[in-house]
Structure to design on (106 residues):
């Protein structure tokens, strides 16, 4: 005869594993904020930036963000160990405006 399975113990183990994964994800997100230099932003601005990224329907911008993120993780960093923290890809030469902001102005 087979030994009966302890479903309660298995469920508890799965819940513990899920909790560990959530904690690890939260810690890694915090590390990412610090590594990118986004911790220097006011919390309201950082939250607004993230919400705008989630709500954005511009697939071109999202692809650009994805490429910049991939470059960040591959080590393409500027001097000082930080990446360009402008999330819209604006350059200092254009006054800090994103292409979308310039388009909206015209």
């Amino acid at each position: 005869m087979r030994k009966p399975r302890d479903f309660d113990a298995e469920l508890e183990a799965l819940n513990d594993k899920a909790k560990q994964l959530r904690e690890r994800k939260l810690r890694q997100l915090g590390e990412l904020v610090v590594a990118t230099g986004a911790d220097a932003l006011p919390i309201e601005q950082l939250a607004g930036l993230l919400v705008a990224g989630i709500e954005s329907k511009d697939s071109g911008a999202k692809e650009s963000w994805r490429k910049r993120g991939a470059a960040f993780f591959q080590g393409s960093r500027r001097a000082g160990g930080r990446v360009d923290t402008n999330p819209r890809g604006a350059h200092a030469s254009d006054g800090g405006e994103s292409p979308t902001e310039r388009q909206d102005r015209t």
Notes: The radius of gyration is 21 Å. Confidence is low (pLDDT under 50) at residues 79-106. The first helix runs from residue 7 to 36. The chain has four helices and no strands.
